[in-house]
Design brief:
By secondary structure, the chain is α+β, with helices and mostly antiparallel strands. Helices cover 72% and strands 9% of the residues.
Length: 526
């Protein structure tokens, strides 16, 4: 458990005990108030019963005096006492009802008892009043039997019994309420003692746990910091403790490890720098060799271009010499010479245009006439125009195109040139079967051309797209060709934002692939 969680748990338990103590205190205070109010009401009811008893006895005494010595005040004193008794009885009923509201249940027995007491009192008053009314003056000694009956039977036996029962009952209720209050106070003191002891032990235990959780990890942290300050990066602080201090120890250990690794890396920096110097020197040497190779390539390129241009120029010059040598020729002979000259000039122009397109593509300045065309239709039309060549060479051509349309942004003539280059290449250097397909890809369309020819050696596959390069089998088996077809095709495809590549296994045929982007995916090319 984390240190902050331990402290939070400790304070949470103490807070819970404090809240419990507050709740018990509030409950105890409310119970004490309840019993005090109940005892106060019972005491007031008792006092009211005492007043009723005193007023009743005083009333009965005045009635007796009126019978013995005569009613001198014409019943004025009796009426005052009767009114006082009625007020006291009404007060007792009011207090009993108030007590019923306090305890939450009706005090039926007490109400019945006060009703019985009221009936007894007023029955005695009625008998006194009737007896006094039947005599005009004091009662003679031989006529006091009725008065003795009233005093003995009504007052001494019935009234005294009821008034004393009411007084005893109220005293018992007061005593019971006081006893309940005392019992509540004892229970309250016991609970407060239990809470105090529990709070003490929880506080002591929590303090011990927190101090134990801090003391040893802090000592380990202090020792580790001193070791790190002396540069001992291999020392590790013990991290068995979980929590914030354990996290700090982990961070310090990782920091020490990083510092040690950094120090080690600084020690190795010199060796790395020396190795980098050696590597840079080697790279410079390779760059120098590359520059020499590029210089040789440029010389070879110039030689190849000179060689390729020399042939048509020689033809042109030879045809001109023939036309000019000797006697005047017929128009047919001049036309034949001009025809040969024109063919040689066209060959030269095509060669120059191809070299110029490759150069512009490498410089990023190639020009294309981009429009929306259907690649499937273009492939079929190109093959249709090559039917005579296919028949003359006896090649079996198969189109495996499973899609109806392939709408893309292309330069129609340039892509047609790519198809012708691949087809001429397959016819000239391939076998007897050519399979052409157009497939949809996630980014566009894939044009592939397979031939079952002798294939291309693996070491030559990366060179066939270089200018004026011809594979070993093409050089040995076929004489025609200037080595510009595939480089031009590569430049055209790359100018369209696509790519061209070959997969071949020597002796098992070759497949050339051209990937072109679909509408909306290709960047604009000037």
């Amino acid at each position: 458990m984390r240190l902050i969680d331990k402290i939070a748990l400790t304070y949470g338990m103490l807070l819970m005990i404090t809240l419990l103590c507050a709740a018990v205190s509030i409950w105890g205070a409310s119970q004490a108030e309840y019993h005090l109010r109940k005892a106060h009401l019972a005491h007031r009811i008792y006092e009211a019963h005492v007043r009723v008893s005193n007023n009743s006895f005083q009333l009965f005494k005045q009635f007796a005096d009126a019978l013995l010595i005569g009613d001198r005040d014409k019943g004025a004193g009796e009426r005052i006492l009767i009114a006082a008794i009625e007020n006291d009885i009404a007060a007792i009923r009011y207090l009993i009802n108030k007590e019923s509201l306090l305890v939450g249940q009706p005090e039926t027995i007490e109400l019945e008892a006060i009703s019985d007491l009221e009936i007894k009192i007023f029955s005695i008053i009625d008998e006194y009043t009737e007896y006094i009314a039947s005599h005009d003056g004091p009662i003679a000694p031989d006529q006091n039997e009725r008065l003795a009956y009233i005093l003995d039977r009504k007052v001494d036996e019935s009234f005294l019994f009821h008034i004393q029962s009411a007084l005893d009952r109220e005293l018992e209720e007061v005593d019971a309420t006081i006893e309940q209050n005392e019992r509540l106070m004892r229970m309250f003191r016991y609970l407060m003692g239990v809470f105090a002891v529990a709070s003490f032990f929880i506080a002591i235990s929590s303090l011990y746990i927190v101090l134990t959780s801090i003391r040893r990890p802090m000592s380990d942290l202090n020792k580790g910091v001193q070791k790190f300050a002396k540069g001992d990066w291999n020392y590790r602080i013990r991290t068995n403790e979980r929590g914030e201090l354990g996290d700090i120890a982990h961070v310090l250990n990782r920091t020490a490890q990083a510092a040690g690794e950094r120090e080690l890396s600084l020690k190795e920096a010199k060796n790395r720098l020396e190795d980098e110097v050696k590597e840079r020197t080697s790279e410079l040497h390779r760059a120098l060799l590359t520059l020499e190779e590029q210089s040789i390539d440029r010389q070879n390129l110039l030689a190849d271009v000179s060689h390729e241009l020399r042939t048509p120029l020689t033809i042109i010059r030879g045809e001109a010499d023939i036309a000019l040598r000797g006697e005047v020729k017929t128009p047919e002979e001049y036309q034949e010479a001009l025809k040969c000259t024109r063919e040689a000039a066209e060959h030269t122009t095509a060669l120059v245009n191809d070299l110029l397109f490759i150069a512009r593509q490498e410089a990023g300045t190639s020009r294309l006439d981009i429009e929306i065309h259907d690649l499937v239709t273009l492939v079929r039309q190109t093959l249709s125009n090559m039917e005579k060549v296919i028949d003359d060479r006896g090649v079996k051509v198969t189109c495996q195109i499973d899609i109806d349309k392939a709408m893309i942004h292309i330069d129609r003539n340039r892509i047609r040139q790519v198809i012708l280059v691949l087809f001429e290449n397959a016819c000239q250097y391939g076998g007897t079967e050519i399979i052409i397909s157009v497939q949809r890809t996630p980014s566009g369309y894939l044009l592939s051309m397979f031939d079952n020819g002798p294939g291309i050696a693996f070491e030559e596959q990366a060179k066939i797209f270089s200018r004026f390069y011809r594979g070993s089998n093409a050089t040995k088996l076929y004489g025609a060709g200037n080595g510009l077809g595939l480089p031009v095709a590569k430049s055209i495809v790359e100018a369209h934002g696509g790519q061209i590549y070959v997969r071949s296994e020597f002796g098992k045929g070759s497949t050339f692939f051209v990937e072109l982007l679909a509408l909306g995916l290709r960047k604009n090319v000037a």
